[in-house]
Amino acid sequence: MKKSITLFIFLAIVSIAVCQTAVVSKQNAAGSKSVAFKTAANKGITEKDTIKKDKVITDVQEKKVDSLIAILGTFKVYKKEAHASYYADKFNGKKTSSGRRFDNSKLTAAHKKLPFGTKVRVTNEKNGKSVIVEVIDRGPFVRSREIDLTKRAFMEIASNKGSGGMLVTLEVLNN
Known about the structure:
elongated, 2 domains, Barwin-like endoglucanases, 175 residues
């Protein structure tokens, strides 16, 4: 009886360990050994250890997948000289009106009336830079503002990184 319990516990531990980590080992041209680990809990993070003459160099690389999408269709001007602002950091990780989690590092926005999922090209009127965002939330709830951008989207088109608002042109994608 004790042997079967011990065997069962041993097999459970081994199967959990096999499911958690996959180890890949390869030899590169310089003769140093590289080992890459990828765990189920950290799907986006890859850790590489390189061993060279008793030194261990660790590089942690996080790959954020942000796809470049070919958008077919035309953009129709929705509003010119609209006031845009960006979300405060305190909203990061909270649920939006659409039910999705807010992430300040994505290209999304909040608008009072446009339907969720609408693609909007936001163009800074001062420098001509533009970004395409997806509406996932409602707001801004300040009378003079038309759209709230994520910090990433705002900083990509801002001419003055220290400002909290800008005049933009909003164009909606017509499929």
